[in-house]
Write a structure and sequence with these properties.
The chain is an alpha+beta fold and 325 residues long. It has 8 helices and 14 strands. Strand 13 and strand 14 form a beta hairpin. The two termini are 38 Å apart.
Length: 325
């Protein structure tokens, strides 16, 4: 069994997807979140701790992007609610993002602060004991959000993501594979080059999250965890015989993933008091067919496929209606 470490709600599903694949006895642990990147046994463990803080500490990441002349949102870091409140009042510009200063996983404890009245509520949710640093950031209002995953050997997978329309910053969907718009390459590539030097051996990946518009790009975060379903067999639609997980693990030369046919992973969520989603997908004809489906507690996740992007939203609404019955 693949030696995963860290937490991820789909850990068991990822393990199951790899059961029929032989890796020839891997000798490294696979981190599923950024908190486990530097634990004993991972490929990252022997790296320089000062530089690796770039990945694990959001304050240091902001310092690095600012010092390198990359577009960086205004930010404030402190343990004190009072000092964070003073910065908010002086700035008086909303919305803001409020996060733990230590990088975690899956937007955990990240919120959209739409006004000063919510600051103390989110502060307590993130930092109930008042001893950990919190970062407040200008909310970057890009037109799109891209995730770009890089691995040793030249592996690249580009996705666009959509967030829930509430204050939790949770992902609703990801569509892939995409190509980087030519107009943004000059903005994005120098940023990734600054950090890609960490990808010096197999079993390492970096996932960059950018907020972009037609002319500019802002780095939101960098992550090194293998916690994306599309990395695993059965959840990416790839037909060349190897999943992104296998390609990153081997570190062999790999071309960026591209293609006319697109895939979308969509997360369906219910209140925990509601009836659960069905264990098996009901029979339904969709313009963007579902090729993988999984239910877990109050959540269901589906992988859709189509070469016409407009078909995704129509099919999601139809399936959402069926699943709600």
């Amino acid at each position: 069994m693949i030696p995963f470490i860290g937490t991820w709600q789909f850990k068991n599903l990822a393990e199951k997807s790899l059961e029929k694949i032989s890796f020839g006895g891997i000798n490294t642990s696979i981190p599923l979140d950024d908190l486990s990147l530097f634990q004993t046994g991972t490929t990252w463990f022997s790296d320089d701790r000062t530089q690796l803080a770039w990945l694990s500490n959001r304050e240091i990441l902001r310092q690095i992007t600012s010092e390198n002349g990359f577009k960086t949102p205004a930010w404030k870091v402190d343990c004190s609610l009072e000092k964070l409140a003073v910065w908010c009042i002086k700035r008086n510009l909303f919305p803001l993002a409020i996060k733990p200063c230590t990088n975690d996983s899956e937007s955990r404890k990240i919120f959209r602060l739409s006004g000063f009245r919510d600051l103390s509520t989110f502060y307590v949710k993130i930092n109930g004991k008042g001893i950990d640093k919190i970062i407040l950031e200008e909310w970057v209002k890009g037109k799109y959000i891209f995730e770009i995953t890089h691995g040793a050997g030249g592996f690249e997978l580009i996705s666009q993501i959509g967030l829930r329309k509430d204050l939790t910053c949770k992902t609703v969907w990801r569509i892939f594979p995409l190509k980087l718009p030519q107009s943004l390459k000059s903005k994005i590539l120098p940023i990734m080059k600054t950090f890609d030097k960490f990808l010096d051996r197999p079993a390492k990946l970096l996932r960059y999250t950018f907020s972009v518009d037609e002319k500019d790009a802002t780095l939101i975060s960098i992550n090194g965890g293998f916690n994306r379903l599309e990395y695993y067999p059965g959840w990416n639609g790839l037909t060349d015989g190897k999943s992104p997980f296998e390609k990153v693990l081997s570190g062999a030369a790999a071309e960026p993933i591209s293609g006319e046919t697109k895939f979308m992973i969509h997360y369906f969520r219910k209140n925990k008091k509601e009836n659960q989603y069905p264990e098996k997908l009901p029979e339904i004809e969709l313009k963007a067919p579902v090729i993988s489906y999984f239910r877990q507690e109050n959540m269901a996740v589906a992988l859709f496929t189509s070469n016409i992007p407009e078909n995704f939203q129509k099919s999601i609404k139809e399936l959402e209606f069926v699943l709600a019955e």
